[in-house]
Amino acid sequence: MPEYRWGIFLQPPDEKRQVNFGIHKGQPAWQDVPGEYRSILRRIVVTQGDTEPASVEQQKMLGLSCPSLYDLRNIFQVNVEEGRHLWAMVYLLHRYFGRDGREEAESLLARRSGDTDNPRILGAFNEPTPDWLAFYMFTFFTDRDGKFQLCALAESGFDPLARTCRFMLTEEAHHMFVGESGVSRIIQRTCEVMKENKIDAPADVRALGVIDLQTIQRYLNFHYSVTLDLYGSDVSSNAANYYTSGLKGRFRETKLEDDHILRDAMYPVSEVVGDKINTKQVPALTSLNERLRDDYIEEIQAGVDRWQRVIDEAGIPFRLTLPHKGFHREIGNFTGHFISPTGEILSEEQWKAHEFDWLPSPKDYSYVQSLMSGRVAELGKFANWIAPPVKGVNGQPLDFQYVRFN
Ligand code: BYC
Fold first, then answer.
1. Per-residue pLDDT tens digits for 202-261
2. 131 lines ligand 1 (CB under 6 A)
């Protein structure tokens, strides 16, 4: 990508910008790190920065099995931009946090996705991304967590962070497009093959070299649930502190109409009591993680509805659904509970008996990977398991030489 601009990009400054929420609301936005918040701010920047190289580490082998030059070009763009997003966070650490910042930046280089001794900070970033279906699911589900977290940080009273995140968000949109359209093209191809051959049993679908809708649903369940964990605990004093100090806002903070302090506001969160899932009202300040998760779920549901339309248009009676919020969770109020995709509380034994009806099994992974044993690199050609996109990149045709092998 010779024309790619590799550098530190910040949204242009707004001299009049203020802290827009929390106890410092109305004060001028900070151009330097406020001393009393130095360590929590550094922690936010480090956590954000840590995810960026992690995703590249997770995806780095996929070029070898790309379904087309178009897709290879797209994964390169995603990876280069994630690399630059790391650089953007490293810039903040070096520029504003002195020696501690430099040390944290070095540690970012030392951690590795999935390394048992020195893993990435957040769970989803230590999971493998072993194939292209996982890659598209990741860019649809997990990059969208990136969007929501960056939106919350773009509201920060620490202006250099807000300006950096605003720029990063412009690139995030493309990553989510790659994910959404990638899954959609896989669904489309599967539906075409099912219709042409008048088949619907997963084994028959697999025999024709495409990915059955049931497997797509299991991948969806996995990526959705591990991404929900990325929002942190439903009730979190960290989240309350970030907000009260003016460091991390809500999604679209300045568009919301309330006091932006949330001293008396309440918010509903779920909890498991006996064999029931109840909703209880808790202070809105401590439930900010849950609120951001709910904002995210709303947007995710709209994307899944768009995938469903591809199946409906093919006239195939199959429904893709988002599992219950409590399904397969390891962070927050649902941790340690065994909840089915439809929201029933089960015993561990009952849950385990269905695990591979709900989540991809080793056999599913090996089937999907068997379709992706080599790369498709001829001009204009696409692997059998995915439909071509509607159009090429930047107005180029589908048989454009998107990648050169020198
Ligand atoms: N896995 O009060 P709690 C992106 C830890 S993605 C492991 O519940 P808090 C991208 C937590 O660190 C966006 N650990 O949570 C996407 C804490 O640990 P300590 C990334 C977890 O702090 C695709 C403890 O549990 N950006 O950009 O309120 C490709 C209790 O914490 C997890 C951000 O996340 C987990 N899932 O909220 C490329 C924004 N969840 O301190 C890029 C910055 C929680 O007790 N981060 N823990 O050791 C934050 O705002 C917060 O750190 C979190 C957690 C929302 C992640």
1. 999 999 999 999 999 999 999 999 999 999 999 999 999 999 999 999 999 999 999 999
2. no
Tens of pLDDT along 30-72?
Answer: 999 999 999 999 999 999 999 999 999 999 999 999 999 999 9
Quick one: which of 140, 150, 142, 182 has its CA closest to 303? 140
Q: Whole-angstrom Cα distance, residue 200 to residue 182?
A: 22
Query: 86, 108 in Cβ contact below 8 A?
Result: yes
**Is the per-residue pLDDT at 142 higher than 80?**
yes
| Distance in angstroms (rounded) separating the CA atoms of residues 111 and 54 | 9
Per-residue pLDDT band at 127 (split at 50, 70, 90)? very high
Residue 119 CB–ligand 1 contact under 6 Å: no
Residue nearest to atom 53 of ligand 1 (CA): 232
Query: What is the DSSP code (8-state) at residue 319?
Result: -
What number is the average pLDDT over the span 311-337?
98
In single-letter form, the type of residue at position 181 comes to S
Identify which of 332, 334, 331, 330 has the alpha carbon closest to the alpha carbon of residue 344.
334
With a CB cutoff of 8 Å and minimum separation 6, the contacts of 327 are 221, 225, 339, 340, 341, 343, 358
| CB-ligand 1 contact for 360 (6 Å cutoff) | no
pTM confidence score: 0.97
Cβ of residue 52 lying under 6 Å from some atom of ligand 1: yes
333 within ligand 1 shell (Cβ under 6 A): no
3-state secondary structure of 267: strand
Identify which of 47, 137, 248 to mutate to test ligand 1's pocket (most ligand atoms within 8 A of the CB). 47
